[in-house]
Write a structure and sequence with these properties.
The chain has 19 helices and no strands. The chain is mainly α and 476 residues long. The chain folds into 2 domains: 417 residues, Up-down Bundle (Growth Hormone, Chain: A); 51 residues. Helix 10 packs parallel to helix 17 and helix 15 runs antiparallel to helix 18. It is globular. 58% of the residues are buried. The C terminus is likely disordered.
């Protein structure tokens, strides 16, 4: 494995790449009313411009990680930057809603080559456990900040230029990151890379797509409609078949043995739930600020600023806490912050609307800032360097699947209660229900985090390691 004399530069390059990928999963939120108006789209049609990106990203993350292990991480990382930048250019030129949706998927294929590969590059650059935890803390904080900063940057661009400008910002950043990666990121490969697993890849795509399609289209077709029921049932069937198929493969796309570790299983579940909450939070609040309160795109983006600001502040702090005390304190603090945010928003309070809104956004960012480093560190801790990228890619897949589900679920809640984005009892009810879902996600995260990082979980890992000593390398 090649060494790097400037690990800080490598970390910065990886953080820049994850920033533009995460930002583009949410940057269109504030532009949805403009896109809906320009193309004459429905709410569900506009949703697909968001979910085409996160859905494709979630589907290809693990394939990209395994390919990078096989042919070279820097090579795949640079290829991802080229595809992502080119996809951004296509999105800015999209002549129709359908074309924009397709171009967003192309953009996401490139993005899938950045996040897990960047994580693998970091774990191979920072080999000392405490330094690795701190680096992951910075990287994890950037993951959350990028998603939350999307509405702010997008709002400014939509306000002063056009919604197409939200894609222009990626082009110079992508080009600069490509050049810097060529100069400073060492090439590395896994000692024993896995083979391509087409069956696993197809089943992952099918399971995630069918679930998202069923949820997004349910308000139009009806939850009891054959189309909706068949989509959701087929998604579950694909997931079950995926588990069976992957267990029988020596080199699977998803190594199911990872999930025998309670901390790893907990990290994946927490990533899914937290990003479901974040994806839902961003879509319901950007629509609420513009459609109900009458904010401009820039005002809407600025109003959400407390969220990324708190994430940027507490992400690195959480990384240091995780490096010293483990993930348990950060998981508890983070989930408590998110629950408090949801309760304050969903339950009527005496605070003025403006103050309550900003406090909610700050609490949400506070919670997410504490969570990211804990999630990633839990997932990769104890993994050998060759497998850290695979473990991180599974958690990254759960993050993006969570954002996809958050947009789909909350978007469906809004679509079921109102057909017009305007003030009224329908949108108010949808807003309260959306925040209640966020509260539920926070409570589940707190429960899962406390259970899977406690003594029971550690004893379970210890017993399995001694029962299956040849599999010791797979378990944190």
């Amino acid at each position: 494995m090649a060494t790097c004399s400037r690990p800080g530069v490598v970390l910065a390059i990886c953080c820049v790449s994850v920033f533009i990928v995460g930002m583009d999963s949410s940057i269109l939120n504030v532009a949805l009313p403009s896109i809906k108006r320009d193309f004459g789209a429905s709410i569900s049609g506009a949703q697909w411009t968001l979910d085409a990106y996160t859905l494709t990203l979630a589907s290809f993350l693990m394939l990209s990680a395994s390919t990078a292990d096989r042919i070279g991480r820097r090579k795949v990382f640079q290829t991802g930057l080229v595809v992502f930048t080119f996809g951004s250019l296509l999105c800015s030129l999209a002549p129709s809603l359908e074309a924009l949706t397709v171009f967003r998927a192309i953009q996401a294929v490139g993005g899938s080559m950045l996040n897990p590969v960047a994580m693998s590059i970091i774990t191979n650059t920072f080999t000392e456990p405490r330094e690795r935890a701190r680096a992951i803390g910075v990287w994890g904080g950037m993951v959350g900040v990028s998603v939350a900063a999307g509405p702010l940057i997008g709002g400014a661009l939509v306000e002063f230029v056009d919604w197409r400008a939200v894609f222009w910002v990626n082009i110079p950043i992508g080009i600069a990151a490509f050049v810097l990666a060529k100069l400073h990121v060492p090439e590395s490969r896994a000692p024993q890379p896995r083979k391509f697993d087409p069956a696993g890849q197809i089943l992952v795509i099918a399971a995630v797509f069918l679930l998202t399609f069923g949820i997004i289209e349910a308000p139009n077709a009806g939850w009891g409609a054959p189309q909706t029921v068949l989509s959701l049932v087929a998604s579950v069937v694909c997931l079950c078949v995926l588990v069976v198929v992957e267990l029988r493969k020596q080199e699977p796309l998803i190594d199911v043995r990872f999930f025998r570790s309670p901390p790893f299983s907990g990290a994946t579940a927490i990533a899914l739930l937290m990003y479901t909450a974040q994806g839902g939070f961003l879509i319901v609040n950007t629509l609420y600020l513009q459609a109900v309160l009458g904010f401009s795109p820039l005002e809407a983006g600025l109003s959400i600023l407390p969220m990324p600001a708190m994430q940027a502040l507490f992400g690195p702090i959480s990384g240091r806490v995780v490096g010293r005390y483990g993930p348990r304190p950060s998981l508890a603090i983070g989930s408590a912050g998110s629950v408090c945010a949801g309760l304050l928003a969903a339950v009527p309070a005496e605070l003025p609307l403006g103050l309550r809104m900003y406090v909610c956004y700050a609490l949400m960012g506070f919670g997410l800032g504490w969570m990211n480093a804990a999630i990633t560190t839990t997932a990769v801790s104890g993994m050998p360097n060759a497998q850290a990228g695979v473990a991180a890619s599974i958690v990254s897949t759960m993050r993006q699947t969570g954002v996809t589900l958050g947009v789909a679920v909350i978007g469906s809640v809004i679509a079921m209660h109102t057909t017009v984005l305007a003030p009224g009892p329908g949108f108010t009810a949808a807003y309260r229900i959306s925040w209640s879902i966020i509260v539920l996600c926070g409570l589940l995260v707190m429960t899962i985090g406390l259970v899977t990082t406690g003594r029971w979980a550690q004893r379970a890992v210890y017993r399995h390691v001694h029962k299956h000593p040849l599999e010791k390398m797979w378990h944190p």
